[in-house]
Design goal:
Elements lengths: L1 H22 L20 H25 L23
Length: about 90
């Protein structure tokens, strides 16, 4: 019974993928549409800065803020700080 379900799921996935590819074929056209004005492309430095350095920088800033504003660190208990576990007796 598992093979039948797997085959059915695979056929459904393949059919869905095929239909999506057939429906999206105009997106691969080489001719420009009316009113299409793409503008200039990004340089390598701009691309790396926008898609690599900026997300890493945002991650570092957010992680730093979370660590700096973290309130879950353990506070010292003033009542247990004066308890000694070693014996003071002298023989």
């Amino acid at each position: 019974m598992d093979k039948k379900n797997a085959l059915r799921a695979g056929a459904l996935a393949a059919g869905t993928t095929l239909m999506m590819l057939l429906m999206s074929s105009p997106a691969l056209a080489l001719t420009r549409d009316d009113g299409d004005d793409p503008g200039t492309g990004l340089s390598v430095i701009e691309t790396l800065g926008l898609y690599v350095l900026l997300p890493i920088g945002l991650f570092v800033v957010i992680a730093g803020l979370v660590m700096a504003l973290d309130k879950s660190h353990q506070k010292k208990d003033p009542t247990s700080s004066n308890v000694r576990t070693e014996a003071d007796a002298k023989a």
